[in-house]
Amino acid sequence: MENENANLLDEIYKATKMGLKATQMIIPKVHNEPLREQIERQGENYKGMAVKAKEMLRNTGRMPQGVDEMKEAMLWGSIQVNTMINKNPVHIAELMISGTTMGIIDMTKKLNQLDAADAGSKKLAEEYIINEQKNIEELKKHL
Questions:
Q1: CB within 8 A of 39, min separation 6: which ones?
Q2: Per residue in 100-110, is it b (16+ CB within 10 Å) or e — as a string?
Q3: Could you read off the pLDDT of 29-79 as tens digits, one per residue?
Q4: Are 67 and 17 in contact (CB under 8 A)?
Q5: What is the DSSP letter of 85?
Q6: How remote is the C-alpha of 64 from its chain's centroid?
Q7: CA distances for 29 relative to 8, 11, 42, 92, angstroms
Q8: Nearest in space to 23 (alpha carbons), one of 4, 45, 49, 5
Q9: Under 8 Å between Cβ of 15 and 103
Q10: What pTM, to 2 d.p., does this model score?
């Protein structure tokens, strides 16, 4: 159980750090102010959840693993390619919705796989999913 708890917290930390990196990479390409503000709010959400996950993980005696450099490089490449020609707000909203949806799917899988994690860790993972669903609803307004 303790191991599953730490693993779930680490997954939350990784997901929020990756989400934060994605928002930071895409914000300079967004010229639509309302969309930019939404993406900035999403980034702030990720930042706050990463702090919570890191704190809870430290309480288990572990440190967060951090984001895989290869995944980060792939994210950067994907954002560059997908925004090279098309920086239209609708296209950027689609990219953000797609990435956010992937985050929901991945976290849902982890919640199901790491069923023995404690209630606090599960609650944080569920909060992550709920926030991501809210982000998608806000991003849909830009389609």
A1: 23, 26, 27, 30, 92, 96
A2: beebbeebeeb
A3: 999 999 999 999 999 999 999 999 999 999 988 888 877 888 889 889 899
A4: yes
A5: S
A6: 15
A7: 32, 28, 16, 9
A8: 45
A9: yes
A10: 0.91
